[in-house]
Amino acid sequence: MDEHKLRELVAGVKDGAVSRRAFIQRLAAVGITAPIASQILAWNDVAMAQASLAYKPTKAGGGGPLKILLWQAPTLLNPHFASGTKDQIAGRIFFEPLAGWDKEGNLTPQLAAEVPTRANGGLSADGTVVTWKLKQGVKWHDGKPFTADDVVFTWEYAADPATAAYTTGSYTNIKVEKVDDHTVKVIFKEATPFWADPFVGVVGQIIPKHHFGEYKGAKSREAPANLKPVGTGPYKFVDFKPGDILIGARNEDYHVKNQPHFDTIEVKGGGDAVSAARAVLQTAEFDYAWNLQVEDEVLKRMETGGRGKVSAVASGDIEFIILNTTDPWTEVDGERSSIKTKHPTLSDPKVREAINLLIDRDSIQKFIYGRGGTATASFVNEPKQFKSQKLKYEFNVDKANKILDDAGYKKGSDGIREKDGKKLKYVYQTSINAPRQKTQAIIKQACQKVGIDLELKSVTASVFFSSDVANPDTYTKLYVDMEMYTTTQPQPDPERFLNQFVSWEIANKENKWLGRNVSRYSDPEADKAYKAAQKELDPVKRAALLIKVNEIFCEANVILPLLSRTRVAASVTNLMHDHSGWDVDTWNVAAWYRS
Amino acid sequence: MATYLLRRLLIAIPSLLGISLILFTVLALAPGDPFSEMATNPNVPPEVREALRASFGLNDPVMVRYLRWLSAMAQGDWGFSFASRINVDDLILQRVPTTLFVVGTSQILALCIALPVGIYAATRPYSVFDQIANTLAFVGFSLPTFFTGLLLILLFSIKLDWFPFVYRSDIAASGWRWYWEMFRQAIMPITVLGLFQAASYTRYVRSAVLDVIRLDYVTTARAKGLGEKTVTLRHITRNALIPVVTLVALQMPAVFGGAIVTEQIFRIPGIGSLLIDAILANDTPVIMAVTFVFACLVVLFNLIADLLYGWLDPRISFR
Q1: Is A574 part of the contact surface with chain B (CB cutoff 8 Å)?
Q2: Phi and psi at residue A485, in whole multiples of 5°?
Q3: Fewer CB within a 10 Å sphere, N or C end of chain A?
Q4: What is the 3-state secondary structure (H, E, C) of A67-114?
Q5: A386-418 tens-digit pLDDT
Q6: How far is CA B166 from CA A247, A277, B101, B195, B235, in A?
């Protein structure tokens, strides 16, 4: 999709010829996430849509207890230290950002009075300043007023490298100024089309200056409020046992009228995903369970009792395969898979093309993931029926055979193809996880049919995803021919997500394999487009550039996307909730209710 | 005896030091690091991960880290959990009461079953009762707790809907209701653990009683014309229980250490599940503390068992 087409679409939305949702889906199909699409509309002065969950109760309270079961227990409550979703979910019950993302990718104000647009003066014409108007009359749980000082402090806190906040990436390159008690300015160094990052969603939760003020920087671990949060959210802190249970009570001064509905909230952790699904769907002991990485067949069987339902929403997470174009079996300067080497056979684009044709994505989706993912050929994307015009996937053994025949790979006596004495034999690694091992088996079988031999390898997740420099089996080292995993898009900024495709992020010995480009593949065109996108002010042009980066890697068959993952949750039948793939499950827990 | 005790305590110190050194080295050399969760998150810059590694001292040599840990431990500082950033001793103390309640009750249940059944079976060897008790005991300890646990959940929680299968340390009730809820949620895990333990204890009690029952002093007691009940309880049981008491004493560390598998199945927030979570999260200070406490308990109860032996059977002297 080029710039011209995007502009036509934007004009269509303005005229009402194209619906907002259709626009977002069209962009999603070519690799632009829903929030970015939403940003393009906001820039072009198309108003944000209404929140997707209609709240029915006419008064706050009276809903009894709300019981949430996470199979990974929350261990800490400071949202800026939250390393995993489990902690972010827990933190969001007490703390709120200026705005959150709903499942359609709409920016929804929470502590902000309104979403900044060009029309209301929130966005400057040069794209460097965003002015947030804060909601008036909001109080912290201890009764102190919420003001611009808290927002400015949150920036200082998270940006301080000594604090070692996990959200620091969103705050280091900006400046935040207080205009008055209820207005703050976020100043970017350069024009930033994706401005809705600091103070928004998962990374954006505002913490009170009067509780954290003394604990900025190196003393951050000592803050009592880390474990006894005082926020602005719908529930007040009651009790917390790390790794076990979290209890909150209704905030009677909550700043949204008639919310929240429930009198208490309880987040219990521990156990495994299957039994968490069981506790909601079969026994209804709990109201809500998140992130159910359970085979869909099992969930469907549990649903038959009629006590609970499963819901899946689109997310930016993607399960994909990397084909290694460097040689993992030769050591150069103390590292394997060095960019100075070339893979004997996988550096041949024809071989990569053939392998991509041997992945039966439809079967993988149908028989393994079910509602847990949607087959796709695009790295950045949203699921559903809208597929990219350009990036398509195909499962075709005959075609793969023909490509390899034409490229001169002949079957040897053992049935494995080879050319110039180099056999098509690969080691294919992933982490230990039932769906992944099944996917490996499906792909291995298809490869066998054309004479490619795959040796399957699985590494325990805690090793595979670690940054342990001494271990050869981590995913960033890529000491194999191909590997598979899911990369998460924690916040809907495709720019940072796509830095996995730029040459200066290549993981190697020098950066202790902390670089984001694990594939080691690079393309000057992609680098150029990425750099241009970073500076590009016009969000439409920028979107077109980022799409290009995505397409270069997918078309080179170095990155083979498999499934765009969905976030699957279970809830009891009468619980009205609204979880989003662009924000944490509890992003609007204030609006949940029992019908 | 005092000198014996003192000597044993002095020997315990170097062995505990050795244990801690081995534990620490193994943990330090084990693959994985506590920040793996951040690995696929593009929002966390590598610098933050590096800064955290440095601030948690993970980049120092193993020996330096061990000495730092040892000196802190000697001063009563157990370190803090990498995952939740709170002090390890607080974390452990939060879990101990639940573990003691669930695992302790199950041990009592096990003894309440094993003692009468084992003694009765041994006094009538190869009778129908003995055969049945033996068979059940075999079945009991061949079935692992994760299997029986799931079986009970499927039957009593899902089919019959009688008991909850998620154990909660905070019950929003007071008075009798609290006790009732607490009892209701503990029935299944206690049964699973208790029956498993009872099975092996029964076998042990039976063979201990069988050993004693054939001794001359029992025949003498019977010849004196004492009643069967008196002979069994006064003469046989008392002597037969000596090895059983030792066995139970050596089981005590397990009571404090929790039942790792069962706690995981029923989501009991005990020491066992803390250890599992810590291992999965590579939370080294917690793993270190829990396993070390465990080691101390084993050493301590070994000593108590030895002392008990000498006290129960004066033929064994303290040397």
Answers
A1: no
A2: -165, 180
A3: C
A4: EEEECCCCCCCCCCCCCCHHHHHHHHCCCCCCEEECCCCCEEECCECC
A5: 234 577 888 999 999 999 999 999 998 888 999
A6: 16, 12, 16, 20, 46
Strands A174-180 and A183-188, by their bridges, are antiparallel
Residue B51 is predicted with a pLDDT of 75
Listed range (A362-376, B14-28, B254-268) with the worst mean pLDDT = B254-268
* Tokens (6 digits) for A531: 């750099």
Q: What is the CB-side half-sphere exposure of residue A145 using CA atoms within 13 A? A: 9
**A301 lies within 8 A of chain B by CB:** no
Q: Which of A99, A112, A74, A85 lies closest to A226, judged by CA?
A: A74
Torsion sign across C-alpha atoms A140, A142, A148, A150: negative
Assign 3-class secondary structure to B96-132.
Answer: HHHHHHHHHHHHHHHHHHHHHHHHHHHHCCCCHHHHH
Q: What long-range pairs does A554-558 form, CB within 8 A, spacing at least 24?
A: A554/A377, A554/A378, A554/A379, A554/A391, A555/A391, A556/A349, A556/A352, A556/A521, A556/A523, A557/A323, A557/A349, A557/A352, A557/A353, A557/A355, A557/A356, A558/A322, A558/A323, A558/A325, A558/A352, A558/A519, A558/A521
Q: Using one digit for the tens of pLDDT, what is the confidence trace for A323-335? A: 999 999 988 888 8
Tokens 């913490």 found at: A207
Contact A471 B267 (CB under 8 A): no
CA distance B192 to A362: 43
Question: A383 pLDDT band (50/70/90 cuts)?
Answer: very low
Return the DSSP state at A214. Answer: G
Cα dihedral angle (B112, B114, B119, B121), rounded to 10 degrees?
130
pLDDT value at A1 more than 60: no
Neighbours of B191 (CB within 10 A): 17
Those of residues 89-128 in A touching chain B at CB distance below 8 A are: none
Question: Which among B47, B86, B153 has CB closest to A242?
Answer: B86
Locate A200 and state its tokens.
């928004």
DSSP string, A127-141: SSEEEEEBPTT-B-T
Residues of B in contact with A270 (CB under 8 A): 264, 267, 269, 273, 277
Inter-residue contact A290 to A585 (CB < 8 Å):
yes
* CA–CA dist B270, B282 (Å, integer): 18
Vertex A313 angle, CA A482 and A286, to 5°: 110
Angle A168-A172-A175 (CA atoms, 0-180°, nearest 5)?
A: 130
- Residues on chain B touching A272 (C-beta within 8 angstroms): 264
> Across the interface, which of B31, B43, B45 has its CB nearest the CB of A468?
B31
- A499 residue type, one letter: N
Q: Is the C-alpha dihedral spanning A515, A518, A523, A529 positive or negative?
A: negative
HSE toward the beta carbon, residue A133, CA cutoff 13 A = 10
> In this structure, are residues B269 and B84 in contact, taking their beta carbons and an 8 Å threshold?
no
- CA–CA separation, A165 and A157 (whole Å): 8
**Binary contact (B36, A466; C-beta < 8 A):** yes
Locate A51 and state its tokens: 């929140």
- Asked whether the whole model's pTM tops 0.90, one would answer no
pLDDT digits (tens, 9 = 90+) for A351-361: 999 999 999 99
Residue A47: what pLDDT?
58
Alpha helix (H) residue ranges in A364-411: 397-406
Best mutation site among A67, A315, A466, A506 for testing chain B: the one with the most B CBs within 10 Å? A466
Query: What is the distance between the alpha carbons of residues A368 and B130, in angstroms, rounded to a whole number?
Result: 51
Q: Give the least confident one: A103-112, A300-309, A425-434, A466-475.
A: A466-475
pLDDT tens digit sequence for A178-227: 999 999 999 998 877 778 889 998 889 999 999 998 888 888 878 888 88
Q: Which of B90, B13, B44, B16 minimizes the C-alpha distance to B286? A: B90
Among A432-436, A584-588, B25-29, B53-57, which is the least confidently predicted range?
B53-57
